[in-house]
């Protein structure tokens, strides 16, 4: 509304503040605020066990959302990640149950490779159809969302696909429940995926091309960038991230059901947006995204620990969060 | 020519700036401007980019509020609360940018927000009729049911003007209306403006093109660095004097000394090149060290032909580079072969406006700044240092976004970006559109230096003076075909217009069939 009055005392400071990109730090401030809120609501929230537990549970969404950061930064959208997770989990478990290879460990390793292959393939389908078919990603991934889900239901015969071998289950379980140097394995995996994602997005030419394509496709094309290839590749990265999330998810329950991954797309997109990535593309924030995934899980946790709001309303609260996040983003951008 | 009322200052000015100033934060961009606009007068505002013309227009049309001073209409202070309020008072601004809904028709755009109704339904037939008439008044024939996205930029501009003039108006402000118009279209627009003046409408006219300002204006106000330098009767000012007042120095040498840098060695040979719907059967050669111009009206197919040749759009025909036949399937192929194309659409196709200078600079040649898959930030920064020095890019801060630069500096950044590819052929489309005179001079010198260093340059431009000023040879296109070539003695505006408008049809057709 008003230009700040020229005030010689604060101008230097104000200038410095203005230099910091507010959309980049807003998610971290919000996360800190949630911690304070949580501690006030219930002191047990701030306990290290509870926090690590929350982080562990946020891992699926955090890992998937890192992939979504690539897709959205490049100006795309992937609604199929939840169904894709179910499909990848289903195929992986079916393979583990087949006992095709001798030795449980080799079997597991092959299972992981297959999961990643299926994820990458499913992502490639999304990428190829959007770019070669020149169809809006919203429509394409709406379609594949239905396809992947339906194929999973068919594979599961309408029920669930469970890991049969208890030996294999025991071998696999630590991936979700185990710890390393005091931190749960899933938290390590989030860190690794985040580091790799940040490296690719910020330090490599591919990452630069992703931002360029999302920023302005025409400029990218006139600059000699393979726009379609870059676009398609972001969907493949998304698929691989989904597969990694599945590798963390399967040992938790040891089964894939028809509702596995339900509404994950909503949560992943929410995490990306509250993390400060622009939904219209051209800006990508990996660590903001991970922060956003934590926030979603923490909000749920606080609701469970407090008695003010029924935890059945978690979905509603998350919906409110994404809308508020967009409003905050817009206000910050307008000021900057 | 000058209407009698313009010279009489006894009339009450319909619009007046009374010592207005505007500051954004601590920076004052406009200082104590006082000027009057009389009914039946065309008052031109000229000045370099950043001189404060657009800010002044926005203050006078209610888009911005002054920090000091006031705006008066009919001699009384008014507070214009916004563009709608201004329109109610009969004050209309024709924006420089095209603000139309691309998917709606011409008529729907012209009547947007004030649709004619018949009962509950919109009266399309009446709106189409009136829209066609409004466009015809501007000297053009456009089918009112065409969707705007299918029109050329120039025609969209006309639609926008037609739309603005639908409002009952006493004062019309034109913000660089001819920036994307050809001489022919410009002449039609000037006729419209003269008509307005004859109806006692006051016109405020902003333009970079000084000859046309001289032709249309009754009075001229020159701005420089946010200050009013002079207000004079147009009859007292020659374009040269205007330029001098604008930049505060002598501009008689806008174009560099012409040097015969063109060799006899043919570097590029195009034969029978077609770009479906835009260019037919185009053949031409480019020599090493030559500056070759492409003239023609907007829509003649110049941009599309060259985009087709470099692989930015599908095209067919023979391309020989250094005597060897080549095919460019994508623009990457032509870049790799040493040909770069700088789009006329700097903001839409040239630069990522929302990204910083460094990202923009290295985008097309990123492989030169990487080690393995890794981008080396330090080398990029060094590249930016070099570019800023070599191309005289003036940015307040290094971390500005490309969209925050002035048009001239954007063009320099785009040049720097493409020159990093180390091309042997540089194609520049509308090199100085929307750029101030000082920067124009720099860009002309840069183009001349490129030729001097043995590179070949193709310049597409709608400003004939500029082509004549810097090119060794000019090809003229009309309706998708190359219809003429001018060089040496014949390189005059008249000669080009004759080809571009098809006056010499027979000769032109002869030429096109290959008699030369």
From TrEMBL, chain A:
Membrane topology field: Multi-pass membrane protein
Subcellular localization, as worded in the UniProt entry: Cell membrane
Keyword Iron: no
Keywords: Cell membrane, Membrane, Transmembrane, Transmembrane helix
Pfam families: BPD_transp_2
Membrane-traversing stretches: 25-48, 54-72, 79-99, 105-125, 137-156, 176-202, 232-250, 286-306, 312-328
Source domain of life: Bacteria
Keyword check for Transmembrane: yes
One GO MF term attached to the UniProt entry: transmembrane transporter activity
InterPro entries on file: ABC_transp_permease
Cellular-component GO terms for this entry: plasma membrane
PANTHER family tied to this protein: ABC TRANSPORTER PERMEASE PROTEIN YPHD-RELATED-RELATED, RIBOSE IMPORT PERMEASE PROTEIN RBSC
Name listed for the protein in its UniProt record: Ribose transport system permease protein
UniProt organism field: Phyllobacterium myrsinacearum
TrEMBL record, chain B:
Record protein name field: Ribose transport system ATP-binding protein
Any Pfam family the entry gives: ABC_tran
Organism: Phyllobacterium myrsinacearum
Family annotation (InterPro entries): AAA+_ATPase, ABC_carbohydrate_import_ATPase, ABC_transporter-like_ATP-bd, ABC_transporter-like_CS, P-loop_NTPase
PANTHER family (UniProt xref): CARBOHYDRATE TRANSPORT ATP-BINDING PROTEIN MG119-RELATED (PTHR43790), GALACTOFURANOSE TRANSPORTER ATP-BINDING PROTEIN YTFR (PTHR43790:SF9)
GO cellular component, one term: plasma membrane
Superkingdom to which the source organism belongs: Bacteria
Membrane topology annotation: Peripheral membrane protein
Residues in ABC transporter domain copies: 15-250, 262-504
Annotated GO MF terms: ATP binding; ATP hydrolysis activity
């Amino acid at each position: 509304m008003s230009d700040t009055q020229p005030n010689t005392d604060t101008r230097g400071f104000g200038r410095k503040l203005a230099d910091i990109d507010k959309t980049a730090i807003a998610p971290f401030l919000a996360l800190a605020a949630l911690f304070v809120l949580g501690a006030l609501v219930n002191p047990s929230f701030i306990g290290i066990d509870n926090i690590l537990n929350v982080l562990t549970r946020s891992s699926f969404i955090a890992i998937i959302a890192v992939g979504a950061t690539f897709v959205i930064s490049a100006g795309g959208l992937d609604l199929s990640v939840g169904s894709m997770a179910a499909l990848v989990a289903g195929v992986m478990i079916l393979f583990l149950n087949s006992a095709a290879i001798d030795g449980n460990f080799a079997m597991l390793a092959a299972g992981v490779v297959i999961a990643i292959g299926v994820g990458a393939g499913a992502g490639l389908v999304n990428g190829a159809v959007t770019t070669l078919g020149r169809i809006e990603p919203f429509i394409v991934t709406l379609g594949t969302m239905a396809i992947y889900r339906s194929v999973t239901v068919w594979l599961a015969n309408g029920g669930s696909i469970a890991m049969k071998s208890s030996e294999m289950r025991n071998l696999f379980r630590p991936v979700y429940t185990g710890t390393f140097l005091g931190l749960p394995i899933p938290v390590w995996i989030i860190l690794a995926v985040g580091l790799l994602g940040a490296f690719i997005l910020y330090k490599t030419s591919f990452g630069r091309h992703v931002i360029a394509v999302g920023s302005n496709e025409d400029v990218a094309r006139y600059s000699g960038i393979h726009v379609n290839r870059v676009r398609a590749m972001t969907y493949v990265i998304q698929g691989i991230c989904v597969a990694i999330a599945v590798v963390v998810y399967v040992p938790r329950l040891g089964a894939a059901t028809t509702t596995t991954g339900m509404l994950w797309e909503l949560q992943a997109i929410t995490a990306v947006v509250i993390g400060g990535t622009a939904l219209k593309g051209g800006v990508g924030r990996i660590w903001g995204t991970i922060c956003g995934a934590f926030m979603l899980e923490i909000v749920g946790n606080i609701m469970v620990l407090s008695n003010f709001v029924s935890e059945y309303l978690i979905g509603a609260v998350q919906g409110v969060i994404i809308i508020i996040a967009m409003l905050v983003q817009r206000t910050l951008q307008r000021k900057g | 020519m000058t209407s009698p009322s313009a010279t009489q200052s006894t009339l009450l000015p319909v619009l007046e700036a009374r010592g207005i100033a505007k500051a954004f934060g601590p920076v004052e961009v406009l200082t104590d401007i006082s000027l009057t606009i009389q009914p039946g007068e065309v008052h031109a505002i000229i000045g370099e980019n950043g001189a404060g013309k657009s800010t002044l227009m926005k203050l006078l049309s209610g888009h911005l509020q002054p920090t000091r001073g006031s705006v008066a209409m009919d001699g009384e202070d008014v507070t214009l609360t916004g563009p709608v309020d201004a329109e109610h008072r009969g004050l209309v601004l024709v924006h420089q940018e095209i603000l139309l809904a691309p998917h709606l028709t011409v008529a729907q755009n012209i009547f947007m927000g004030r649709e004619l109704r018949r009962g509950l339904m919109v009266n399309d037939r009446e709106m189409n009729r009136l829209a066609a008439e409004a466009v015809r008044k501007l000297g053009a024939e456009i089918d009112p049911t065409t969707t705007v996205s299918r029109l050329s930029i120039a025609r969209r501009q006309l639609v926008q003007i037609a739309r603005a003039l639908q409002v009952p108006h006493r004062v019309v402000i034109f913000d660089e209306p001819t920036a994307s118009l050809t001489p022919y279209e410009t002449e039609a627009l000037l006729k419209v403006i003269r008509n307005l003046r004859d109806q006692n409408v006051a016109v405020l006219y902003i333009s970079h093109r000084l000859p046309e300002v001289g032709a249309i204006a009754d009075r001229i106000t020159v701005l420089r660095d946010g200050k009013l330098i002079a207000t004079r009767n147009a009859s007292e000012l020659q374009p040269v004097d205007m330029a001098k007042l604008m930049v505060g120095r002598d501009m008689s040498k806008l174009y560099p000394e012409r040097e015969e840098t063109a060799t006899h060695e043919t570097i590029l040979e195009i034969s029978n090149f077609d770009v479906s719907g835009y260019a037919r059967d185009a053949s031409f050669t480019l020599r090493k060290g030559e500056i070759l111009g492409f003239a023609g009206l907007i829509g003649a197919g110049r941009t599309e032909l060259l985009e087709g040749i470099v692989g930015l759009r599908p095209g067919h025909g023979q391309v020989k580079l250094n005597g060897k036949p080549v095919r460019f399937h994508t623009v990457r192929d032509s870049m790799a072969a040493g040909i770069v194309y700088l789009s006329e659409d700097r903001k839409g196709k040239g630069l990522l406006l929302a990204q910083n200078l460094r990202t923009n600079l290295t985008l097309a040649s990123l492989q030169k700044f990487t080690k393995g898959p890794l981008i080396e930030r330090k080398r990029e920064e060094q590249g930016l240092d070099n570019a800023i020095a070599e191309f005289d890019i003036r940015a307040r801060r290094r971390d500005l976004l490309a969209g925050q630069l002035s048009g001239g500096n954007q063009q320099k950044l785009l040049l720097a970006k493409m020159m990093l590819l180390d091309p042997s052929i540089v194609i520049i489309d509308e090199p100085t559109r929307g750029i101030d005179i000082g920067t124009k001079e720099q860009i002309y010198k840069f183009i001349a230096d490129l030729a001097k260093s043995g590179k070949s340059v193709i310049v597409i431009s709608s400003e004939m003076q500029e082509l004549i000023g810097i090119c060794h040879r000019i090809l003229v296109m009309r309706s998708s075909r190359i219809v003429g070539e001018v060089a040496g003695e014949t390189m005059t505006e008249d000669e080009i217009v004759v080809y571009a408008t098809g006056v010499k049809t027979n000769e032109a057709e002869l030429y096109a069939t290959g008699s030369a």
